[in-house]
Write a structure and sequence with these properties.
The complex is a heterodimer of chains A (242) and B (320). Chain A is α/β, with parallel strands linked by helices and 242 residues long. Chain A is built from 9 helices and 10 strands. Classes of the chains: A alpha/beta (242), B mainly alpha (320).
Chain lengths: 242, 320
């Protein structure tokens, strides 16, 4: 079984179980959405899978191999890359230098997207308009988001986790990033999208996973999941009807 | 090819003033130049480590160990092997210290390096049979004790340190080091082996600092612990690098010259002990007014002159 599989995983901060015995699968070649209200454990889930916070219990399988407890850089080498929601890149580095880091250090046998050779191509592929010699300190939020996607793609992943890559973007920028995610998926990358905006999820994904208070709440087609009574309750509170 | 010629020209430009002073054989200037070259090597060592976000206040430890190591091993192994073994010892200790302090964040790391340098001094004092204790040691004198020749040799070491510094400012290390310093999680998420690179930087930094110490110990043929394991050598590389400009090879060299110049001028104008207060105050003013150092300041001026039209582009981006 390829793709990403999480079996009985738990992450606890003191007494709080941010991820509580979660089992789920992201099948190979899909775009899956991970949704849930604030504090439901979405970001912890990404930190757990990418190795930043190893789970206290459970197993994580990537392409059928266990990656539980591996260092984050080793997990990158195995073919899993993630983006950060608020990318803090060194502002003295240029676009080209940031993308060059995973190109140099991420040992992956997967090719870059078709037609993409180096850092400059990858920047263009992700829709970065400023010159590649531009320092990151001068980039807008939407360009920093694109740079973060380009950096993750430079890891040449099999599975890509996008942590709210579209949050706070304007309508036009959002549409462009949606198109980019589709193109990345079409090039053969399995994508997990962590998102707040339902409209984007409905557009992009055929499969959605809902977390609430660290537990798996629902799973299935976005339209069905979003109309699920429990999901509505988690988001809006009890007794709220539309 | 062109870049290589430019690099070689850069090293020649760094070495030229030192070589000129050595050839002129001006006794006072030769001593000043030797002091500057030794501080510059030590400052380059400090800067290599600081590029990974590890701010050390304990480089006197490696400076002293380089001096002691080369001095004690040269009679046994000969000069070349003795120095090599001395520097390797510094590298090995740096790897151990690096591994222990790895998880310490910022200030805690700095305090750990400071305490380490103090404990090395104590180690020397309590092992008189091995290290001579408080009475010190008599290392073989460099270059037959001729100061101009010593200066030429130390200039060679300075160029070697500059080459090492440039390797770690190249495409392979500079972006990765800065990413580790700024955001280690992002570096790891980009496939960078963060721990390994931090320890590598520590080892290289320790060895280059040891080279500076070996040069210093060989100047007069007599070294006591108070000469090399003092706060002066802990603070000096930091002051020199911040004054000259961090994250560059030129910065520590320029900083070493500027700091010595400042010291001499303050000594001349103020005199007595009071000059040290003035000298300290001027350093603080420089750090506050010129946080990027002399080299960073000069680069900023050049960039502004070169690209006055850039602001339009920035505005267009803001509007989009």
């Amino acid at each position: 079984m390829s793709g990403l599989r999480v079996e009985g995983c738990t992450v606890a901060f003191g007494g709080l179980r941010a991820i509580d015995n979660v089992t789920l699968a992201i099948p190979d070649g899909t775009i899956t959405a991970l949704i849930g209200p604030n504090g439901s454990g979405k970001s912890t889930f990404v930190n757990m899978v990418s190795g930043q916070i190893p789970p206290a219990a459970g197993r994580i399988l990537l392409g059928g191999d266990a990656i539980t407890g591996l260092r984050p850089d080793r997990i990158v080498h195995r073919g899993l890359a993630r983006t950060y929601q608020v990318p803090k890149v060194p502002k003295e580095l240029t676009i080209e230098e940031v993308i060059s880091v995973p190109l140099l250090y991420a040992r992956s046998e997967r090719p870059l997207p078709p037609g993409v050779r180096g850092a400059a191509d990858l920047a263009r592929y992700c829709g970065l308009r400023p010159a590649v010699s531009t320092r990151c300190g001068q980039l807008s939020v939407s360009d920093l988001r694109r740079l973060e996607i380009a950096r993750a793609l430079a890891c040449r992943p099999d599975v890509l986790l996008l942590d709210e890559s579209m949050a706070g973007l304007g309508v036009e920028d959002t549409e462009q990033v949606i198109a980019l995610v589709r193109e990345i998926h079409a090039s053969g990358v399995t994508v997990l999208v962590i998102e707040h905006v339902m409209r984007i999820i409905a557009k992009l994904c055929r499969h959605a996973i809902v977390l609430n208070q660290g537990r798996l709440l629902a799973e299935g087609e976005p339209q069905r999941v979003l109309t699920d009574g429990q999901v509505r309750e988690a988001y809006l509170g009890k007794g709220f009807t539309l | 090819m062109n870049a290589l010629v430019l690099r070689l020209g850069f090293y020649a430009a760094i070495a030229a003033p030192f070589v000129a002073v050595a050839l002129a054989e001006h006794a006072f200037l030769v001593q000043v130049a030797i002091g500057i070259a030794v501080s510059a090597i030590l400052a380059l060592a400090w800067d290599i480590l600081s590029r990974t976000g590890q701010v050390s206040l304990g480089h006197a430890a490696f400076f002293g160990m380089g001096g002691y190591g080369s001095a004690l091993l040269t009679p046994v192994l000969g000069p070349v092997l003795g120095w090599t073994a001395g520097l390797l010892l510094c590298g090995a200790v740096a790897v151990l210290l690096g591994a222990v302090t790895l998880r310490l964040r910022r200030l805690y790391f700095t305090i750990a390096t400071l305490s380490f340098s103090l404990s090395i001094q104590v180690f020397i004092l309590v092992t008189p049979d091995l290290t001579g204790g408080s009475t010190g040691i008599m290392p073989p004198v460099l270059a037959g004790g001729s100061p101009p020749h010593q200066l030429l040799f130390i200039t060679g070491c300075l160029v070697a340190a500059a080459v090492v510094s440039d390797v770690f400012l190249g495409a392979r290390f500079r972006p990765a080091f800065f990413m580790i310093r700024n955001n280690p999680h992002l570096a790891a998420a980009s496939g960078v082996p963060v721990t390994r690179l931090k320890i590598l930087a520590f080892a290289v930094s320790g060895m280059v600092a040891g080279l500076a110490g070996a040069c210093y110990a060989g100047l007069y043929g007599y070294v006591i612990p108070d000469d090399v394991f003092t706060t002066n050598w802990n603070v000096l590389p930091l002051a020199v690098t911040i004054l000259g400009g961090m994250d560059t090879t030129l910065g520590p060299v320029v900083g070493a010259v500027a700091l010595r110049l400042l010291e001499e001028v303050a000594r001349h104008v103020v005199g007595g002990v009071g000059y040290q207060v003035v000298y300290g105050a001027v350093i603080i003013l420089f750090i506050v007014g010129m946080p990027a150092g002399l080299v960073g300041f000069a680069r900023g001026l050049l960039r502004r002159r070169k690209a006055p039209a850039r602001s339009d582009g920035a505005k267009a981006r803001l509007a989009s």
